[in-house]
């Protein structure tokens, strides 16, 4: 019988800053010893990293998150203590620690053991590899919220995914195809085969021409029902020009917007975007509905996306899998913005 230790290894955020400044590998971090009703203890096998991780690390003051706190939100693991729940010791699960849950419990996924409510995990279907399952948290819930909850995407409709090679973009393509929609996606030309391989019906190389210019001069035969801007760009052009390629009753969903840096140029683009989306139509605003992704977590959404996983329709590819001691390198890979697929850290080297 495996004994649960009292301390564990954990990558802990100790201060605001870049991952190399903020993160410290602790080998004496306490393993949760008390479980509340409805909670289980999960032995973490792998943690999926997200751009939101390093953005939060660099933006939020220590008191907001209650640092020091382990990093990471997406997890794959095995039940170590079922705590009289519907699970049994040894069950394979994956899940998501929302930011609110991380703050309230001072938990993170980039460690060996996590105390987590059963509402934040689901059984792992065996049709998906362990490492891919580790990336089924934030990006999948974000894409599902955008396309299903906000845009109400239906079979037979068409969607344009801006940022098709990103983690959220890949999940959006696969969810849209699972719902019977036609998908056009953009990325750099070198990633065309990859983006088509995850399900896109058509591809646009954004490096050849600004996307809004291309779509205006080459509009689809039938305007899109949905445009999903998957990477949170602080640029209003795709939205303000959308009447040329988005149906009058269509919806533009943004995963942002966020300035990519604190430069004057980026802040100015961000301000222009806020002005563009907030100007009412009667004052000359864009006559298309704009909304953004927020509040991505719910148990219902976690369970709904698990159905797509079990059907083999949702299977995020892996860009790079790093060993546990290389977690900072994993974040730095994300920060290059060149990852195609999920960046995962193997907490258990046997994963």
Automatic annotation (TrEMBL):
Superkingdom of the organism of origin: Eukaryota
InterPro entries, alphabetized: ADH-like_N, ER, GroES-like_sf, NAD(P)-bd_dom_sf, YIM1/Zinc_Alcohol_DH_Fams
Record's protein name: Enoyl reductase (ER) domain-containing protein
Residue span(s) of domain Enoyl reductase (ER): 17-345
Organism encoding this protein: Sphagnurus paluster
Entry's Gene Ontology molecular function annotations: oxidoreductase activity
One Gene Ontology cellular component annotation held by this UniProt entry: mitochondrion
Lineage of origin: Eukaryota, Fungi, Dikarya, Basidiomycota, Agaricomycotina
